[in-house]
Design goal:
23% strand; alpha/beta; 42% helix; Rossmann fold; 7 strands; seven-stranded mixed beta sheet
Length: 172
Amino acid sequence: MHGGWIQWPMKSLLIVFHTATGGTRQMASAAAHGAAAEARVRTRLLFAHEAGPADVLAADGYIFATPENLAVMAGMMKDFFDRTYYPVLDRINGRPYAALICAGSDGRNAARQVARIATGWRLRPIATPLIVCTRAQTPEAILAPKAIGPEDLARCTELGAALAVGMAMGIF
């Protein structure tokens, strides 16, 4: 306590993402922008191939952002989880997380996969997975660069802000 004010400790939010066509990066960046509004939370945005066990251990909360490819999470996100799962198991229990899914039509299976891994890590979901459907259904549309609409980006921003504020306040 300092001068009647509570001194909250600084927290760290790790956002791990993969993208091939840019949609998931836009979503992850919007969440990072929302989280950045909370001065008591330091936000790190990392590509899945760059993130490792030390990054996971150093964070107090997480956002996992992945495209859904062939009805599953992207292979690079699976690789991230494969490389980090056992080194951090039982060392991050109870920490909060959220998931962002960029999908062509559904996204629920990728969200289920992320949730199963997070459950194994004993993380606490702070929201239902945020799924953005791009409606890309042809090979050309699937492979084309994505532009996520302002309403969906606003939802991602709000999710990042909510997680950061909740972490800063000690709610999760």
